[in-house]
Amino acid sequence: MKSSQVTIKDLAKTLGISPSTVSRALNDHPDISPETKKEVNDLAKKLNYEPNVVAQNLRSQKTNTIGVIIPEIVHFFFSTVISGIEEVAYKAGYTVMFCQTSESYEREVKDTKALLNQRIDGLIVSFSKETQNFEHFQEVSKKIPLVLFDRETDELNVSKIVVDDYDGAAMATQHLINQKSERIAHLAGPDNLTIGAERKRGYEDTLRKNNMKVNPDYILPCFKGNLEEGFHAMQRLLDLPTPPDAVFCTNDTAAMGAMKAIKEAGLEIPKDIALVGFSNWQFSSLIEPQLTTVAQPGVDMGRAAAKRLIAELKDKELREQPIRQVLKTDLIIRKSSKRS
Hints:
HTH_LacI, Rossmann fold, single chain, 3 domains, transcription regulation, Lambda_DNA-bd_dom_sf, DNA-binding
C-alpha cells in the first residue's frame, strides 16, 4: 500500500476498531485511552499516514492560507516585506500565496478574484498605482480580514501598516539643507498615492520651515519612479537657467537615473549636486558615489501586517477595531550628499 493512500479507514481496519475511534485518537480526544492513542499513533507513523488537509479545511471552513497582493515582486522593498510576512505566517501555521499586479488595476481585480476562489482566510495588500476604485477590496473586507501595507486609502476601513513617509522626506530635505544646499529639487512620486503625496509634503514643509522658497520649477513628476524617468527628469532640471544644487528623489531607482544624468553632464556628486534617494535598495551602497537614502523597515512592515491579519483571523472583534500602525524610517548618510 502506498503511503499516500493510507486513510483513517485503513488504520481502523488494521487495528480492528472504528474509524471514529481512530480519528479521535489522532486528535488526542480525552475520551480515548492512552493505550489506544499510542497504538493508533504508532501505526500511523509506521504506515506514513498523512491527514487529509483538504477535508479538514472543508470541515472547518478554513484553508490556513493567506493571500498577498503586491505591485512588484522584484522590487527590493516589496521583497523584504514578503520575507517578513512569510516569517510570521509560517510560524503561525499559515501558507502564503502571492500575486503581482505589475501596477495594473485590471490585473489587481483579477488577482483578487483568483485568491478568493482559492478560499484564502485573509488578504494583505499593497494596491497598484492605477487603483482609484476600491470596490473589489470593499467586497473582500466584508468576507475576510484585509490588511493594507505601504499604500493606504480612506476608502477602506481596514487595518493599515505604513511607514512615516513625511518624516523620512523631512529628514532627507533637512540633511540637504544642513549640507549647505540652497536650491533643492524633488523628483516626486504620484500624488494619488499617499507615499508620493507625503514625501512631497515633507519636502515642501521642510523648505518652508527653513525659510526657503518652494520653487515649482524644481518639482518634477517621476510617477513610474524608474531609472529612465529619473534620468530624463534630471536632464530637464539641468536645463533650467538656474539648476538645482541638490535633489531629493522619491525612490532610489529614480535617484540612480538622476545620478547618471548628472555624471553625463560632467558634474560632480555631491560637489555640484547632492543627491538623496528613498528606500535603501541594495544597489544604493554599491554605486559610486554611494547613495544617501531613507531606509524603510520592509521586513518589520511585513511582520506587522501578518501579525495583525492573523490576530483578526483569531478574533473577529478586532476587525471592527482597525488600526493604523506607523513605522519609523531612518536616514542613511553616504557620499552622494555629504559635503562636509
